[in-house]
């Protein structure tokens, strides 16, 4: 796992204008560009590089995520499916972290891109060493606007937490599969794996495709 983009500084990260309609066309443009990028690139390294650049652009502006897909849950973090490619080559998910919420230690089994849209995240990587699950590097703070990668090639096991104990954080994840249906693992601290399939928190998706309104 590696961070491929630092958080943009100052004026390049934007908040939504209060009460403005979500600029959902940003997400539509992103998924169209992402599919075109996958048509042009097949190696994982290229996908992470070029896909990371697209995600960096998407999370640089916080004015497009509809409120329904930004709602935290008091019990545990939420994962809202925003889009799946029709060939399930990739999926886009908003992870919404309530104050202090955290994932278990888990893997993905496919490439993934993580971009912070709101707030910040703390990530701790792990790896197996002679059968033992050990921390791989230090806890890393992923600031708003930053993008990092995971995959079985670059490092696939981590635990992610909301960096804040008093507010919601939101990250946008892109995976090389319909991630909610992928069989993967959570790990006990001693490395014992347990199979899980995450599913999604939502049963309805945002409508990216209504072009009847000017500008959308
Ligand atoms: Fe993860």
TrEMBL record:
GO terms for MF: dioxygenase activity
SUPFAM superfamilies the record matches: RmlC-like cupins
InterPro entries in UniProt: CDO_1, RmlC-like_jellyroll, RmlC_Cupin_sf
Pfam families cross-referenced by the UniProt entry: CDO_I
PANTHER family: CYSTEINE DIOXYGENASE, CYSTEINE DIOXYGENASE TYPE 1
Stated family: Belongs to the cysteine dioxygenase family.
Protein name (Swiss-Prot/TrEMBL): Cysteine dioxygenase
């Amino acid at each position: 796992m590696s961070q491929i983009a630092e958080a943009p500084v100052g004026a390049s990260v934007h908040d939504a204008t209060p009460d403005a309609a979500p600029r959902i066309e940003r997400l539509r443009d992103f998924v169209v560009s992402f599919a075109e990028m996958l048509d042009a690139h097949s190696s994982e390294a290229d996908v992470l590089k070029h896909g990371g650049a697209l995600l960096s652009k998407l999370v640089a502006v916080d004015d497009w995520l509809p409120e329904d897909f930004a709602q935290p849950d008091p019990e545990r973090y939420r994962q809202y499916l925003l889009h799946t490619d029709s060939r399930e080559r990739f999926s886009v998910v908003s992870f919404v972290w309530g104050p202090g919420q955290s994932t278990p230690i888990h893997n993905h089994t496919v490439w993934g891109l993580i971009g912070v849209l709101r707030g910040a995240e703390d990530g701790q990587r792990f790896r197996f060493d002679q059968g033992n699950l050990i921390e791989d590097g230090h806890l890393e703070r992923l600031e708003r606007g930053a993008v990092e990668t995971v995959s079985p090639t670059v490092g696939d096991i981590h635990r992610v937490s909301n960096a804040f104990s008093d507010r919601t954080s939101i990250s946008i994840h892109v995976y090389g599969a319909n991630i909610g249906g992928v069989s993967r693992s959570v790990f006990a601290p001693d490395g014992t794996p347990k199979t899980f399939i995450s599913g999604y928190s939502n049963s309805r998706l945002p409508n990216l495709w209504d072009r009847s309104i000017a500008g959308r």
